[in-house]
Amino acid sequence: MLATKRTYLIDSPYHAFTLYGPTGTEVRPWWRRDVDGLVNEFIHAILEDREPAITGEDGRAALAIVLAAYESARLGRPVVPTL
Predict the structure, then answer these.
(1) C-beta of residue 43 within 8 angstroms of C-beta of residue 21
(2) Residue 11: per-residue pLDDT
(3) pTM score of the predicted model
(4) Which sequence spans correspond to the domains of the chain?
């Protein structure tokens, strides 16, 4: 891909995780097969000046659900996501 103004390198949108076991510790990267497709879709949306298939609003809604789940677990009762 040729960049005319800026270049962004997305090495991994996911962090590594550490496995702790009786025989030792192992750090593993967390990578899903669909990540390349998601990143490519985002790049094409920028190049084509359109919204990506997964929007910022979609990400915000997913985050609200996760935060409500954590709060629900902490309080021991249902929590409605705040969108």
Answers:
(1) no
(2) 55
(3) 0.55
(4) 16-75
